[in-house]
Design brief:
By secondary structure, the chain is of the alpha+beta class. It has one domain: 3-Layer(aba) Sandwich (Aminopeptidase). Helices cover 30% and strands 31% of the residues. The strands form three sheets. Strands 1-2-3-6 form a four-stranded antiparallel β-sheet, with helices on both faces. A three-stranded antiparallel β-sheet has the order 7-9-8, with helices on one face. The protein has a two-stranded antiparallel sheet with strand order 4-5. The longest helix has 18 residues. The two termini are 21 Å apart.
């Protein structure tokens, strides 16, 4: 069965969609990664769009494109593109051949351009995004928790780019 998907702004999520998103985020971030932290961030969660992916009636993945993130490149450039955040997936269901073009289409619907950005905590995943999704690293920095982060953007690729 192929992935089904849809996107909605925060203000249009149903109670069931919100519940499914939170259940998936808790499973992925807190249970699977064994990281105990406050996952709810009203300033970021209540903006942007949610991209929800389903197998039948079960949500198997969710990403958010947040409109409130501002990130700095190593050269001082301020990036305010929709930020790809809270990527929560049930293992084995993620399909970049669907996820990337859909994300670009949602970003274009939001802002008129397909440009997006993301922060990544794992070098191998940053390399993967750079190599396979057409993003470029614009900064590498240590956050307040002592973790290395990579900031990637996709503003150098053409509007008709396909993965």
């Amino acid at each position: 069965m192929a992935l089904q998907y849809k996107a909605k702004p925060w203000s249009e999520l149903t109670t069931d969609e919100f519940y499914d998103i939170m259940q998936l985020r808790i499973q992925c971030f807190i249970v699977d990664l064994q990281t105990c932290y406050q996952d709810m961030e009203a300033y970021y969660d209540k903006c942007g769009w949610y991209m929800m992916y389903y197998k039948g009636n079960v949500m198997v993945g969710c990403n958010q494109l947040c409109t409130r993130k501002e990130l700095l490149g190593a050269d001082g450039t301020k990036y305010t593109y929709p930020a790809w955040r809270r990527q929560a997936w049930i293992p084995g269901h993620r399909d970049p051949s669907i996820e990337l073009p859909f994300s670009h289409a949602v970003a274009k619907q939001m802002t008129g351009k397909h440009y997006m950005m993301c922060e990544v905590l794992h070098k191998a995943y940053a390399d993967h995004i750079e190599r396979n999704a057409g993003y470029r690293v614009v900064n590498e920095y240590i956050d307040e928790h002592g973790r290395t982060n990579w900031l990637l953007v996709n503003d150098h690729i053409e509007d008709d780019w396909k993965p």
